[in-house]
Specification:
73% of the residues lie in helices and 5% in strands. It has 6 helices and 2 strands. The protein is globular, with a radius of gyration of 15 Å. The two termini are 26 Å apart.
């Protein structure tokens, strides 16, 4: 149940950012849900491989190359999903940064304080 709520929160974040950013377009809320699912799958399967392959440049840039990796995953999702479009890589970088911030804010509302007795 928690996974579905997180995916819906991610879809809300994608939809809101597509509304705010001029270079990112989502056709509707269903497309935003599909984007959230596809980005989750890409982050699970493709991102670890890209991180390993680009580890030297990531170390040299002190981790800033991770922004490029996230943007490339967003551009890959753009190619895979017909209702989602990102104009250029700069919009993808901005979208990835803002999406990470918005996701962390939205997911912080789900966390409950578990006190040990």
């Amino acid at each position: 149940m928690n996974l579905i709520i997180k995916l819906l929160l991610n879809a809300i974040a994608v939809f809101a950012l597509a509304y705010v950013l001029n270079g990112v377009h989502v056709n509707g809320y269903i497309s935003a849900v599909i984007v959230a699912v596809v980005l989750s799958i890409l982050n699970l399967l493709v991102k670890p491989l890209l991180v390993i392959l680009t580890l030297p440049i990531t170390i040299i840039t002190l981790g800033l190359f991770m922004l490029i990796i996230n943007a490339l995953l967003i551009l890959l999702a753009d190619e895979l999903i017909t209702g989602f479009e990102v104009d250029i890589i700069w919009w993808a970088i901005l979208f990835s940064v803002l999406l990470s911030i918005l996701q962390s804010l939205l997911h912080s509302f789900l966390k409950t304080d578990k006190k040990k007795v």
